[in-house]
């Protein structure tokens, strides 16, 4: 009886190891199975150095072609005018919108101006009286600001340079007139036009509406 028991145990043990080994081999075979069919593989052929250079050069653009492509995509750009008033530049830009690819109002280089004034004392009647006193002293070039943040200030001149400003202040000082100088940074404005390269529509528009601006049209980099 014991012999039969050991025989069955031995057979079961052999069967277990056979099953385990067969399953492991099957998993390994599944893992290394190719994901493609040999018949579908593309044959790779070696390419010589000369052939490679020819392929690259035939697909590459020359410097001249790149520059021409960039110019064609950007068009040509022009700058129009030199306006002190931004609103004036905007009015002109609105009239040109349908003639160009794009139009922008752009600030030019800032500049400084100098305003010579007789300051206000906060009383309008006092400002009126001061105007009469200045006229009695021989000051004729003046203007009383009627409204706004500078209401009551007496303007005695607006100048673009310090030399002109100092000359005016000295002239008034000789007449016993006390003054202040307000320095203000301001901008002038231009209209930038991005075109397809043809400037004639712009010239025709300016010629019929604002011929004085024709000589202010100049080409710039985009």
Précis, in short:
This protein has seven helices and eight strands, in the order αααβαββαββαββαβ. It starts with a helix and ends with a strand.
Structural summary, described in words:
By secondary structure, the protein is an alpha+beta fold. Among the domains are: 74-108 and 185-218, 2-Layer Sandwich (Alpha-Beta Plaits); 112-183, 2-Layer Sandwich (Ribosomal Protein L30, Chain: A), CATH 3.30.1390. Helices cover 45% and strands 21% of the residues. It has seven helices and eight strands, in the order H-H-H-E-H-E-E-H-E-E-H-E-E-H-E. The chain has helices at residues 2-31, 49-59, 63-74, 86-96, 124-136, 162-173, 200-209; strands spanning 76-83, 102-107, 111-118, 143-144, 154-159, 180-186, 189-195, 218-220. Strands 2-7-1-8 form a four-stranded antiparallel β-sheet. It is elongated, with a radius of gyration of 44 Å. The model is unreliable at 59-74 (pLDDT under 50).
Set down the secondary structure blueprint.
Elements: H1 2-31, H2 49-59, H3 63-74, E1 76-83, H4 86-96, E2 102-107, E3 111-118, H5 124-136, E4 143-144, E5 154-159, H6 162-173, E6 180-186, E7 189-195, H7 200-209, E8 218-220
Antiparallel strand pairs: 1-7, 1-8, 2-7, 3-5, 3-6, 4-5
Index terms:
alpha+beta; Ribosomal Protein L30, Chain: A; 222 residues; 45% helix; 4-stranded antiparallel β-sheet; elongated; Alpha-Beta Plaits
């Amino acid at each position: 009886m014991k012999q039969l028991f050991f025989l069955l145990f031995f057979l079961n043990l052999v069967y277990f190891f056979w099953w385990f080994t067969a399953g492991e081999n099957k998993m390994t075979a599944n893992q290394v199975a190719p994901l493609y069919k040999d018949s579908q593989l593309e044959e790779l052929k070696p390419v010589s150095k000369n052939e490679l250079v020819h392929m690259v050069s035939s697909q590459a653009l020359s410097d001249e072609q790149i520059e021409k492509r960039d110019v064609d995509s950007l068009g040509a750009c022009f700058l129009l005018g030199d306006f002190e008033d931004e609103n004036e530049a905007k009015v002109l830009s609105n009239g040109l919108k349908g003639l160009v690819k794009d139009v922008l109002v752009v600030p030019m280089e800032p500049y400084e101006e100098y305003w010579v004034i007789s300051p206000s004392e906060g009383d309008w009647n006092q400002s009126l009286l001061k105007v009469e006193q200045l006229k009695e002293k021989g000051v004729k070039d003046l203007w009383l600001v009627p409204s706004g943040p500078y209401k009551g200030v007496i303007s005695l001149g607006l100048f673009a340079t310090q030399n002109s400003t100092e000359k005016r202040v000295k002239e008034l000082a000789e007449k016993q007139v006390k003054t202040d100088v307000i320095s203000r940074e301001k901008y002038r404005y231009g209209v930038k036009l991005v075109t397809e390269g043809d400037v004639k529509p712009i010239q025709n528009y300016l010629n019929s509406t604002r011929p004085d601006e024709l000589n202010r049209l100049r080409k710039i980099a985009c």
